[in-house]
Specification:
Layout: E1 4-13, E2 19-27, E3 32-36, H1 53-68, H2 76-84, H3 97-114, H4 119-127, E4 136-143, E5 156-161, H5 167-187, H6 207-220, E6 229-234, H7 248-257, E7 260-264, H8 272-285, E8 293-296, H9 304-312, E9 318-322, H10 329-341, E10 345-349, H11 359-366, E11 371-373, H12 382-398
Parallel strand pairs: 4-11, 6-7, 7-8, 8-9, 9-10, 10-11
Antiparallel strand pairs: 1-2, 2-3, 4-5, 5-6
Helix pairs in contact: 2-3, 3-4, 4-11, 5-6, 7-8, 9-10, 11-12
The protein binds 2-phosphoglycolic acid and zinc ion.
Length: 403
């Protein structure tokens, strides 16, 4: 069996120019694997703690790396348990989740190589199915809230291609809508500045105008709203300005007035009651067999205990899974398994601060996520496009949808 030969971390910059970490792990068979970590700006109150990048590099290189030398690369659960032994606090406040996660992901890549499996196939194996799928993208074309210097209250205004067969077609259509949106914004005198996730960040008079302009862009690109594309919104309620009235009725009006399919974090993470009330309303608006999504991101922070609490309180029907919110890969997969058991849709997600690592795409494929959020379909945002391109590549490899 292969054993760990070296672990080394260094500081790199993410897409927002902020320091984050990259970890490289090698084994005694000469294999090398690297992973780099994203970081968020609209942090959930219950997220695992992220420590300063330089401090994390020191913890890895001085404390964790020496203790992992000659450690057998047995399996993910054993390696992750060993990693957690360096910081067994519930929210990883001692060393920071980023001290453990980069090593966990790099080891996953080594274990995949050791088993002669592609990363997504390895993840499929350790997460127990149900199959390999290419998720449908949720393209975040308009950026607001903490992700932009504009006046939009909601953080993300997304278009979701549902009327296409292959991922390749979905990406091409998303790029057309993004381009049409740029034309509409400039023709109507708006700025076409780009926000954190590669979408446009104009000043618009209302949040409804944001959704309206997406509908226009879908039409102008030659597609039918509600049929080819539906809409998604991430409110990121904890970052809402006090001027916005987050009420069940206001959100239900959005579902009624727009082809809105997915609504994320409409309320803050402790307001279980409002979530449950909205869920009843959303279910009432959904056609049988085609539920509209009410997505918990900061509500659940990808944490299995919070997810179980949400299930008990009927608060949502979908969970956002971000790589760096809960712990090691094993903990991420545990949360996904719980989502699966309770019929929650799980959506894989990047962060607003990203790197060129596309682990999240393989994780989505291997755990059969229905959707992925990886930002705008903007060629000028390589840290977003690399995630989508990875999905195109695997689709070709598996010939999914090309039959
Ligand atoms: P973050 O935003 O990465 O800045 O936390 C993403 C999200 O809230 O979905
Ligand atoms: Zn969110």
């Amino acid at each position: 069996m292969a054993v760990i030969a070296s672990v080394a971390a260094r500081v790199i910059n993410d897409s927002r120019g902020q320091p984050t970490i990259e970890v490289t792990v090698t084994d005694d068979k000469g294999r090398i694997a690297t992973a780099s970590l994203p970081s968020g700006s609209s942090l959930g109150k219950y997220e695992a703690v992220t420590q300063d990048a330089q401090q994390v590099v020191n913890s890895i290189n001085k404390v964790i790396a020496p203790a992992l030398l000659r450690q057998p690369l047995t399996d993910q659960a054993t390696i992750d348990a060993k990693l957690r032994s360096f910081d067994d606090t519930a929210n990883h406040e001692k060393l920071g989740v980023n001290s453990l996660l980069g090593i966990s992901l790099a080891c996953a890549r080594l274990l995949a190589q050791d088993h002669n499996l592609s990363l997504y196939h390895y993840i499929f194996t350790i997460s127990g199915g149900p199959g390999l799928t290419i998720p449908t993208p949720m393209f975040n074309l308009l950026n607001g809230g903490k992700h932009a210097e504009n006046n939009l209250d909601f953080q993300e205004y997304m278009v979701i291609p549902i009327g296409f067969k292959t991922f390749h077609e979905k990406l091409a259509a998303g790029k057309k809508v993004f381009s049409a949106l740029g034309t509409i914004l400039s023709e109507t005198g708006h700025i076409t500045k780009i926000g954190a996730e590669g979408g446009y960040a104009p000043h618009l008079s209302t949040n409804e105008e944001g959704l309206g302009v997406l509908v226009q862009a879908i039409q102008s690109a030659g597609y039918e709203p509600g049929k080819d594309f539906v809409l998604g919104v991430d409110v990121a309620a904890s970052a809402l300005p006090p001027t916005y009235s987050a009420t069940v009725d206001n959100y239900l009006a959005l579902y009624r007035n727009f082809p809105l399919f997915s609504l994320e974090d409409p309320f803050v993470e402790d307001d279980w009651e409002s979530w449950a009330k909205l869920k009843v309303g959303v279910d009432g608006l959904s056609e049988p067999g085609n539920p509209r999504l009410l997505v918990g991101d900061d509500l659940f922070v990808g944490n299995k205990d919070r997810l179980l609490e949400g299930v008990k309180k009927f608060s949502a029907n979908a969970v956002l899974i971000k790589i760096n919110q809960a712990g090691t890969l094993t903990e991420i997969i545990e949360a996904i398994k719980i989502a699966r058991e309770h019929n929650y849709v799980h959506i894989l997600s990047h962060r607003s601060g990203e790197t060129l690592d596309s682990f999240v795409s393989d994780l989505a494929i291997g755990t059969a996520a229905a959707f992925i959020k990886a930002g705008s379909a903007n060629e000028q945002a390589p840290e977003r496009i690399v995630k989508y391109e990875r999905l195109v590549e695997v689709e070709e490899e598996l010939n999914i949808g090309h039959i």
